[in-house]
Known about the structure:
By secondary structure, the protein is mainly alpha-helical.
Amino acid sequence: MDVIRRPIDLHDRIMAMRNQEDTAYACADYLDTLSSISAPVEELSGLNVNTSSNGVNELWREKICEWSYQVVDHFDFNREVVAISLSYLDRFLSTRSCNKKVFQLAAMTSLYLAIKLNEPRTLKMSSLVELSRGYFTADHIAAMEEAVLRALEWRMHPPTPLAFVRHLLSMLRPGTLINGVWHDVMEMSRFLTELSVCDYFFVNHKPSTVAMAAIINSIESIGEDRFSTSDRVQFFEEIHSTSGLRQDCDAVVDVRNMLRQMYSQSTGSDHQEETVETETGRFRPVDDRLEADSPVCVGQIDSTTRSSPLYEQQYYSHSTSDYMLHSHINNELQEENIPSNPVPPSRKTSKTAYRTRPGAIN
């Protein structure tokens, strides 16, 4: 549980995290150079497929991110695991060429690793094979796991935007906990950082920048009667003196604008259709919303994992016995009519992010 507690070594922690994001955990703009990178993944993973990178693009990454959120939501893992797994995937792809099939395998393996290293319970490899409907074998996943670990040089604990948010918000005055300001800013910032995970735009921006932008946007929604101008100025001055982060730098401004756009889309008409209220006037519980549209086939999930008798009406209109998570990544991602460099008419927000919108029951 998040609490407003300021660590004694806060400055050292933040500076260590900022050094990490600048060095070991930095990620290049790999989509522009993916096809020219050497050391094809197939040689490391044991997959006998050609190395063409045709089709690996922003849309693919967004789809795989949505799929990852569906997995962690269904198994009740921490959603921050998805940010960690995408860090693995992005940094891995910046060092290797790959095609569509290997991209899927790398994404699944990255999520598997993130869960194994950051959750008290893990997702069995046999369950992961089932989630791919046998598209990949345990040998494929094991080989890819070794390839990812070697490529990332075992740097498996990236600083996430949400980790920066937690540290920065510990600088808020204790009074903000009493009047609910800390809670509201924390939840809105959490929501915005989750939005940022799905969009490739943020790959080239540091987690600290995303965190700073999310906090600023979140504070804008707080009335001055609850959080005065002087308190805001003092808060941002302390952030700058402790971390070196500035609210007016160009990178923060760019990220703030993108987050505003994504948030606006997430609260549009499509969003309203998904936030149907119950008879009590409250949103449906998370479990109900999760299970109503989860593509996981409960009947084939390992008996040790969470399950429930649901899916009478699937979001994707597939039968319970036939629909698996692999359908989401194989049927949608591997369609040949997806252009290799799509230019969407506008940025769209992952539907899975709606589950943690501010005001929802989490």
